Amino acid sequence: MLCTVIVAAMAMTAVAQPAAPLAPAEKASDVRVGIVVELTVNVSPERAEQLAAALADALHRELEVDAVGGGDVSRRLPEGGVPEECLASKDCISDLARRLDCNQLLFLAVVQVGADIQIDSSWVDIASGEVTSRPRIDLLADARAGEVFSAAATRLLPHARKRPLAVVVTPGEPRPTGPEHHLTTGVWIAAGAGTVALVGGVVFGLKARSGFQRCQTDAANCELTQDERDRIDRNALFADLLLGGAVAGLATATILYLRSDRRETARETPTKPGGAATAWSLTPTRGGAFAELRVGF
Prior knowledge:
By secondary structure, the chain is of the alpha+beta class. Helix content is 40%, strand content 22%. It folds into two domains: 3-156, Rossmann fold (3-Layer(aba) Sandwich); 185-269. It contains seven helices and eight strands; from the N terminus they run E-E-H-E-H-H-E-E-E-H-H-H-H-E-E. Strands 1, 2, 3, 4, 5 and 6 form a six-stranded mixed beta sheet that branches. Strands 7-8 form a two-stranded antiparallel ribbon. A hairpin with a 2-residue loop joins strand 7 (278-285) and strand 8. Helix 1 (45-62) packs across helix 4 and helix 5 packs antiparallel against helix 6.
């Protein structure tokens, strides 16, 4: 029957000074965790080594510690693996700490029950020789080892500080440097007038065209009174004037739109007198502070 050992390292004291227990306030960056597979039940050595590597990654990801596991640890173990009863031997613990360059050990027993895996652990501080059991980790068949180990990281190494969450800042798209065009009141008026003129010009143009076509299709029998001829001329004149006005109105609307700038308008808009105003102040006092908020209507 094989064994599972997981080693967690903390900062070592100077060689010239006597060993002292690692205090939680010491630098978390000096913590080193090594994972060594020693005891396995119904778990293949390859699977146990994968779990050791996943646990090392989770500890490093969640806590301010260095972690090593999997093949990196197996290559450093003595020939034949970890000796039996290593947890009860100070010489064995010291040898493992030296091989893994750590000063804490976390011994794990990996047992598979059905499709689930149970991991029992014991933590050892090399400097003080303190041994403490850690809560069991249950790795269900459909669970992801990395997520389970990340959730259990603080229970395995409660003295280690949590690694601060990385803040990812996504830069926004650069704002355009040109003017910010928008539909102003003048644009709406000019566009509306141009549209109405365009519709009127089309209507009068169709009327004038209808009168002209009466003589073009039957010139021999075309008999128009003077009033009818004058009406056709007026319709043609109105059509020309309205179409010209439509072109002028739509062109004006286009020019006003291209010359508009929302940001410039906001800067030029004065604040209305008597408008709402808000101000706040904070005044230190003996034994505290006095806060004041003023809102005008």
